[in-house]
């Protein structure tokens, strides 16, 4: 499949924006699949790095999981400013090469503290997907923009769906280090694809054209609505991702340490994404008819109702059903918050 895409992109008659699309689609897929291939099994991997009590194991798993996002939040403004001066392609190569090295080093970690440190460093090289969207938005013809953004999304989401399942199988057969090596290898392919096939007609952004935070909010009439959506998005992500660092430990407990725990954890981790893809188009259309606020409120209530019983599940099957339902709730929550923010925000403040 990869060879076929590369051959097609090498044809001279193919428009450059289409070559960019296929190269960045693969990069998005590699990023989503590689990251999700290893993440659900972090606690099981950490458990092999030392003899930790349960509280310590869950603490280290949470630190290893969240350290990427912490460093990403710290450096993202810096990379954004640099992208305005140098273009998106250098940022794509920076992210893909950085993740190639850091993901491989994660698999070589001798202890949990080195793993957490490397994961923190890995977060400083993140941003491939965001820059892929930004580059395509600037290069694609206006009439093709919606289709192209949708295509890029399928790459990331598809990778997030298939990654935990493949990672679970590989971990169960070859151990927990191999998914990290696979992540590094996939990002190496993404680096090569980006370097060879992505071309950018870059025009530096003038400083006067950029808005500060105060300027961006000045044109918003209903600031309380946008503020509520920002808080809602934060709470949704916190609630949804809070279980991710310990999902494999929970599955291990439910399976009484018998069977292929890694593969089962991968399937459980992938179920919300499957449900989200299935439900999002229908809930989006429903929101157009009855209003996004009603869908958002229903999604928040439904999410709370589904999360609560997870505390009391006694079988993996029931956990899987509830995780699938959480995916439906996510399909109602995240797209709707973005829709409301877009409707209430002037065009020059969206970015």
Produce a short descriptive summary.
The protein has 351 residues and is mostly helical.
Structure description:
With 351 residues, the chain is mainly α. It folds into two domains: 186 residues, MFS general substrate transporter like domains (Growth Hormone, Chain: A); 135 residues. 78% of the residues lie in helices and 0% in strands. The protein contains 15 helices and no strands. α2 runs parallel beside α8, α11 runs antiparallel to α15 and α13 runs antiparallel to α14. The longest helix is centred in the first third of the chain and has 33 residues. The radius of gyration is 21 Å and the shape is globular. The two termini are 34 Å apart.
Write the layout of secondary structure elements.
Blueprint: H1 2-10, H2 16-38, H3 42-48, H4 54-86, H5 88-107, H6 112-124, H7 128-139, H8 145-174, H9 178-197, H10 213-218, H11 223-241, H12 247-254, H13 261-290, H14 292-307, H15 316-344
Q: Helical stretch count?
A: 15
Low-confidence stretches: 208-213, 344-351
| N- to C-terminal distance | 34 Å
H-E string? HHHHHHHHHHHHHHH
| Fraction in beta strands | under 5%
CATH architecture of the largest domain: Up-down Bundle
CATH class wording of the largest domain: Mainly Alpha
CATH-defined topology of the largest domain = Growth Hormone, Chain: A
How would you state the average pLDDT, rounded? 79
Number of strands: 0
Structural class call reads mainly alpha
The gross shape turns out to be globular
Task: Let me know the CATH homologous superfamily of the largest domain.
Answer: MFS general substrate transporter like domains
Helix content: over 70%
**What's the Cα radius of gyration?**
21 Å
Number of domains: 2
**Biggest beta sheet summary:** none
InterPro entries: MFS, MFS_dom, MFS_trans_sf, Tet-R_TetA/multi-R_MdtG-like
Membrane topology: Multi-pass membrane protein
Domain Major facilitator superfamily (MFS) profile: 20-351
Keywords: Cell membrane, Membrane, Transmembrane, Transmembrane helix, Transport
């Amino acid at each position: 499949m990869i060879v076929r895409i590369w051959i097609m992109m090498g044809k001279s008659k193919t428009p450059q924006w289409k070559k960019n699309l296929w190269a960045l689609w693969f990069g998005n897929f590699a990023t989503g699949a590689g990251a999700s291939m290893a993440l659900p099994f972090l606690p099981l991997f950490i458990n092999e790095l030392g003899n930790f009590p349960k509280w310590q194991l869950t603490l280290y798993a949470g630190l290893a999981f969240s350290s990427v996002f912490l460093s990403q939040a710290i450096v993202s403004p810096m990379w954004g400013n640099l992208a305005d001066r140098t273009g998106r392609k250098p940022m794509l190569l920076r992210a893909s090469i950085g993740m190639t090295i850091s993901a491989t080093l994660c698999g070589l970690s001798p202890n949990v503290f080195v793993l957490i440190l490397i994961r923190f460093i890995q977060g400083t090289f993140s941003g491939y997907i965001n820059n892929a969207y930004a580059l395509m938005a600037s290069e694609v013809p206006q009439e093709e923009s919606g289709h192209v953004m949708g295509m890029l999304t399928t790459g990331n989401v598809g990778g997030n769906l298939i990654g935990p399942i493949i990672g679970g199988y590989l971990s169960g057969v070859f151990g927990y280090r191999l998914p990290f090596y696979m992540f590094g290898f996939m990002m190496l392919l993404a680096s090569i694809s980006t370097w060879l096939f992505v071309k950018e007609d870059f025009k530096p952004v003038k400083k006067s054209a950029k808005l500060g935070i105060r300027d961006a909010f000045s044109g918003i009439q209903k600031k309380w609505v946008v503020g509520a959506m920002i808080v809602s998005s934060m709470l949704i992500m916190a609630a949804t991702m809070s279980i991710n660092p310990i999902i494999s430990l929970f599955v291990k407990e439910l399976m009484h340490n018998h069977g292929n725990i890694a593969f089962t954890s991968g399937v459980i981790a992938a179920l919300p994404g499957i449900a989200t893809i299935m439900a999002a188009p229908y809930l989006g259309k429903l929101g157009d008819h009855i209003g996004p606020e009603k869908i958002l409120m229903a999604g928040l209530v439904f999410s709370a109702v589904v999360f609560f019983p997870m505390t009391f599940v006694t079988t993996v099957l029931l956990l899987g059903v509830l995780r699938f339902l959480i995916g439906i709730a996510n399909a109602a929550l995240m797209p709707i918050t973005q829709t409301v923010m877009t409707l209430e925000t002037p065009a020059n403040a969206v970015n």
